[in-house]
Design the sequence.
């Protein structure tokens, strides 16, 4: 369930250096046959570069996402965020590796705590959605954690923040309505609305975090270690704060570049964007 089914293009000779290359997601511009070579632009808006891409086995249809290895000399001589490939930089529970006061930890642990009402059978606690939104923006994913065109990913952090604030306002409004009445006189629709809102928000939060982790693993060739086929889902449901902190550390290179609680990417200004 959590294994990305993206096709992969052949490794180019310049990328075959003995190390696992970083991969980039390419969105097929049209339906193309196997082996067809075309030029694709990659990188952040305003800093695009062109690479040659060979269509993988079986061909692709318009809009299909597939993976290609990034040429070894891509961006040579320019500042780059170095991200490990083939493995996670550190463990899921090594959340203090960047330091106990690091922004990546506190964005994962302390911001945006949203919970369902005590009368509901299920109770979820989301403290990590600001951090998740920053990672999505950093990786240029959309609000569902998927690959998208620039127009769909340029404001991901703002979209996530808007969803969190909207749900918080929705929950608070229902709490106020419920608190203004005696327990016996609470309209039946209030608990129903609370349950529906909580479940929809919960499903989105888990799905978006799962897809974000899934796409990071695909980009950096990180294999699953446990719960094969379901690792991203299980981690997103059971260890969400630790998962967000781990993804932030893996893609941040905080040893070189500073983190930030208040930026859209969770990184300080002038940090190079991830390709």
Sequence:
């Amino acid at each position: 369930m959590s294994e990305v089914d993206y096709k992969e293009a052949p490794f180019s000779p310049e990328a075959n250096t003995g190390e696992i290359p970083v991969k980039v997601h390419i969105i097929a511009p049209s339906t193309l046959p196997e082996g067809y070579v075309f030029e694709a632009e990659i990188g952040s808006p305003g800093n695009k570069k062109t690479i040659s891409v060979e269509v993988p086995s079986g061909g692709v249809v318009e809009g299909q996402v597939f993976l290609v290895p990034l040429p070894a000399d891509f961006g040579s001589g320019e500042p780059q965020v170095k991200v490990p490939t083939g493995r996670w930089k550190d463990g899921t529970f090594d959340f203090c590796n960047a330091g106990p006061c690091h922004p990546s930890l506190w964005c994962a642990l302390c911001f945006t705590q949203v919970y369902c009402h005590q009368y509901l059978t299920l109770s979820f606690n989301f403290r990590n959605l600001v951090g998740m939104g920053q990672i999505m923006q950093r990786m240029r994913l959309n609000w569902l954690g998927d690959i998208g065109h620039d127009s769909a990913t340029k404001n991901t952090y703002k979209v996530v923040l808007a969803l969190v604030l909207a749900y918080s306002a929705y929950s608070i409004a229902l709490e106020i309505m419920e608190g203004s009445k005696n327990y016996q006189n609470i309209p039946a629709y209030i608990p129903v609305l609370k349950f529906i809102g909580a479940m929809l928000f919960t499903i989105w939060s888990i799905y978006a975090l799962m897809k974000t982790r899934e796409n990071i693993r695909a980009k950096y060739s990180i294999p699953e270690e446990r719960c094969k086929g379901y690792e991203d889902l299980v981690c997103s449901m059971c260890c969400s704060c630790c998962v967000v902190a781990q993804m932030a550390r893996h893609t941040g290179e905080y040893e070189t570049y500073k983190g930030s609680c208040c930026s859209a990417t969770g990184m300080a200004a002038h940090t190079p964007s991830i390709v």
User: Anything to note?
Assistant: Residues 11-17, 111-125 have pLDDT under 50 and may be disordered.
